[in-house]
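Justification of resources, computational component.

The compute hours requested in this renewal are based largely on the per-chain cost of generating structure records like the one below. Each record pairs the submitted sequence with a full structure-token output. That output is archived, and it is also reused by downstream analysis tasks.
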Amino acid sequence: MDLRLPGLNGLLRRPRRLLAAGAAVVVLAGAGTWTAVAGDEAPPVHRTDRLLDTGDGVRVDTSFFTSGGDGRRPAVLLGHGFGGSKKDVRQQAEDLARDGYAVLTWSARGFGRSTGKIGLNDPKGEVADVSKLLDWLAEQPRVELDKKGDPRVGMAGGSYGGAIALLTAGHDPRVDAIAPAITYWNLADALFPNGVFKKLWAGIFVNSGGGCEKFEPELCRMYERVAESGTPDAEARALLEQRSPSAVGKDIKVPTLLLQGQSDSLFPLGQADQAARTIRANGAPVDVDWIAGGHDGGDMETGRVQDRVTAWFDRYLKDDKAVDTGPAFRVTRTLGTGSGDGEPRLTGVTSDRYPGLESKRRSLALTGREQSFANPPGASPPGVSALPGLGGAGGLSQLAGLGIGVSLDFPGQYAAFESVPQREDLQITGSPTVTVHVKSTSDDAVLFAKLYDVGPGGGTRQVLPSQLVTPLRVEGAKAGKDVRITLPAIDHEIDDGHRLRLVLASTDLGYASPTAPATYTVSLKGDLKVPSALGQRDSRGALPAWVWWLPLAGATIALALIVTGRRRTAAPAPPDPALAEVPLQITGLTKRYAKASERYAVKDLSFRVEKGQVLGLLGPNGAGKTTTLRMLMGLIKPDGGEIRVFGHAIAPGAPVLSRVGAFVEGAGFLPHLSGRENLELYWRATGRPAEDAHLEEALEIAGLGDALARAVRTYSQGMRQRLAIAQAMLGLPDLLILDEPTNGLDPPQIREMREVMIRYAAAGRTVIVSSHLLSEVEQTCTHLVVMDHGQLVQTGPVAEIVGSGDTLLVGTATPVDEPVVEKVAALPGVASAVRADEGLLVRLGADGTPQRLVADLVRLDVAVTSVGPHRRLEDAFLTLIGAEA
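The structure output for this chain reads:
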């Protein structure tokens, strides 16, 4: 997945995949190439590209931008987002060059053309590289100096690039001003919040770096250890903390503009709050700007933010005291949508001081008795708050800002406490807090705290502001413990008539929860306290009608599906003991096309499959093969007939489907995850024990080698096909269904797949394969079902169907002379005989038999070596379909 976000035109325009860039330069490794970049009327920008050696064999790719005259000017270092390169910030660099700065961009270690292992802004790696970049800038004749070896320089960047700006300011006193955006202050807090592993974001992060092997070995080992255990340890925290800006916070004493995203479950607003408080305590000027977007998507406010960053550098690098750098604190708010285009309308609220996250707190009483709820086995199914990776399309938090609830909590897996309806509008700006008492049947409890805005009508109007959740690990919970919960920092208005709902859930999709089942009991120990700084309202544009009816319509549809689903599964047909050992029996299966009473996709189809068979399902396009397989999987409901798997009737969600593995009409994979991670995620979703997956056997079947660590989006069609087949084989199901499994495979891979299916069935399991490659079906399958126009044409063993022709190929040890061929043709029961490369091609008459023919050939002294049908499966198939036509 690409974490580069739309917006911020370089600085934030593409903070590619997680945290910002760092790498550097020092010893010139080769001559640069100068390029002129000119707009229609804008002054040209000159760029020189160099690969620079920073020591220890690391080479860093850099670009240096200048414009205008030969005089000296302040410099700006621009870092890129994680997984990106210097190319991502080129436009921003050119704009700043035209504004009178010398701009240096670079690709961090392990990214772009730069070499070296990714060190997560390691002080001895990426941060040291940037210090060498500063050394290089100090030697450039067009860069202004504060003193010899000390360039006048600012740093900016988004995510990973924002972090390197903060870190360098703490490690190198030559940095004069910084403007980090949507970044972290403490990486351990960001990825292990309150002792809970943020597994989805961490996995995206590792994948975005190119896989674990691209990182420094100690980082790779740390990730693998935590990902396997699901619990961050002290060593992991220490490793990330020493590479975090918080480790050098007391040394960051330069003017700092903090731009943090409200739509950000990766680096939420609390990260910027910690930075602001620490740097301000050092005596440095600090302004804070909460923008609308973030790593979860939304509007990055490109133009406004770029202007503010430029003004910040004009003031603190050019010493232009007339420049307005903006308010001490600004927050962007959504005022509904614009006219006609559906885009959110944004406005800003400002303050001459940064209020922090707990300013002007107001107490709100919550009601609710003591409640118990479950942490389910395997922590599945998980609740849903944010969905990392879906931010590029606008982000779920943007929908939340428009009053559309998209979060999910499963009954029996959460406790809820509510306030009374508000009598007036309430603006929350900051982090609400509440104290609860937690008990658990396990030693530790892992909870996910959410604060919902609930409109009139209850749950159908429930919205989770910015899709944010606070995870927390409660140690020693078995004895009971009071816990103060700090909820995510938000800027959200609660309208009059709305209520606040505190939910404490046991699971969340984005985080690792204990897999062992447990029961949590929670009760309130005080009021909810909400910060209400900047509570004034701006004029609001009316929300369009769809904002209100869409959630209601969605809830109605969901309710209808639930009711329908219950009705369908209310009285399942009892299992048939006589078929308990039969993998599949289909009887009278019928499916009509929609709105057509006499047109059938499948009609009166009946056949049976036994253990150990590899059954080929054949038929031309439109024969009804895929429709049959979809009904077999419970994906669609037949209009008539019955399907039984091991004696159990098939219906949507039938438990017996857990014994079936299927690959029908392609598999859907998360493109940002690796092949292995996709298989692991799929298996976890089944809720079955990890040891039952037989993952390594499935991976061996996939045969993807090192590609298993790469993002699936980089896979070829054949690689995706093999991964999908491996997914179908997870758990070694008793019945395996494969629809066109050899699509996209090369000949050696097709041969391997053939052998896999044969071995799989030989172990006592059953395979059903639908394919258009008849030669492969002939070599792989033991039995066939031939369909045409939705009906059964023929079924039986392959040898029987192929051998039902009347033409035999007689293999001979030596070529047969023509006089002998004439004698064979004249034999009783032989219609004709001709020479062939392999021997004789004999067509039997109505009264001819193979046994009689062999006896006559021996009498004629023909050296017979073999006798078999001279008809391939293709011939038989075309004959059968042609006959039906």
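The first strand starts at residue 27 and ends at 28. The radius of gyration is 34 Å.
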